[in-house]
Automatic annotation (TrEMBL):
One of the Pfam families matching this protein, by short name: AP_endonuc_2
Top-rank lineage group of the source organism: Bacteria
Domain Xylose isomerase-like TIM barrel as annotated: residue spans: 21-261
Protein name as catalogued: TIM barrel protein
Gene3D superfamilies: Divalent-metal-dependent TIM barrel enzymes
Matching InterPro entries: IolE/XylAMocC-like (IPR050312), Xyl_isomerase-like_sf (IPR036237), Xyl_isomerase-like_TIM-brl (IPR013022)
Length: 278
């Protein structure tokens, strides 16, 4: 099976979108996944929606290399942020030819969070974008069940769930429950490995997620089972920040190691699937 991979921005966070496209093309990725809004107050963000010259440069490189944009992040809606805030991001995503918008709902008011997610879906629909709900385990939407409740309640044709193998593992989600959910809810997955031991603090969970994930096959997450429970053929966004490695290894080389490890791991997964069906 030929897998399709995207280079996620968190893997090379200080690299510009234009540089990311060049790296993706050199190392064999089909897609890139851009972060156009900041998640923390300290991280640098390349806001293409506000940077016309960089937008034009990035689009030219996409056209020249054939690399596509898989998804744009992040429409994060805590209590103080309305979905309309992200209209410029939706416009930029459409201009780039992206397929999906990644969203988070760190809001304890579940009725408000659900209503805002529905509005974001409605805003994204004219741009032909799906809105895929991610559920970091330390947020107010902490697991697959909570994300599924939102998507089921909004009942929008472009609503989906983004499974990140790290968050799935840290939330102790159920493979059985994942298999039961509608296949059309899953448009792509974020994929990484990580140490088997789950940190006991929010700080520890966030540190692993944002700074020190593992390449596939180098950690203790049962990535194989998670992916086997999801629809076949969806693209995999390799979101694997490795801040310690970044001190000595270039962004291009880290991206290369990430995709080579994923190819080796998933070739083994495909072989196991063929055996099962024989």
């Amino acid at each position: 099976m030929a897998h399709q991979f995207s280079l996620a921005h968190l893997s090379v966070l200080t690299t510009s979108p234009a540089e990311m496209v060049q790296i993706a093309a050199k190392t064999g990725y089909d897609f890139v996944s851009f972060r156009l809004t900041a998640v923390t107050t300290t991280e640098h963000v390349f806001a293409l929606q506000n940077a016309r010259a960089l937008m034009n440069e990035t689009k030219a490189l996409l056209a020249a290399t054939g690399v596509k944009v898989l998804d744009i992040e992040l429409a994060r809606m805590p209590a103080e942020i309305e979905p309309e805030t992200y209209v410029p991001v939706l416009e930029a995503a459409a201009e780039l030819g992206a397929r999906h918008i990644l969203a988070q709902l760190p809001d304890a008011n579940r009725e408000r969070a659900t209503e805002r997610f529905a509005r974001l879906c409605d805003l994204a629909l004219p741009y032909k974008l799906t809105v895929d709900l991610e559920y970091p385990s330390w947020t107010e939407t902490p697991n697959l069940a909570a994300a599924a409740a939102v998507v089921r309640a909004v009942n929008r044709p472009n609503a989906g769930i983004l499974v990140d193998t790290l968050h799935f593992d840290r939330a102790r989600d159920s493979l059985e429950e994942l298999r039961k959910l509608p296949a059309e809810w899953f448009h792509f997955a974020q994929v990484c490995d990580a140490p088997a031991e789950i940190p006991s603090t929010v700080e520890g969970l966030i540190h692993t997620a944002r700074s020190e994930r593992n390449f596939l096959g180098e950690g203790g997450i049962d990535v194989r089972s998670i992916l086997d429970a999801m629809p076949a053929g969806i693209p995999y966004s390799l979101e694997i920040p490795t801040d310690t490695l970044a001190l000595t290894v270039s962004a291009e080389e880290r991206a290369r190691r990430s995709i080579r490890a994923a190819e080796a791991y998933l070739d083994g997964l495909h072989g196991q699937r063929l055996k099962k069906s024989a």
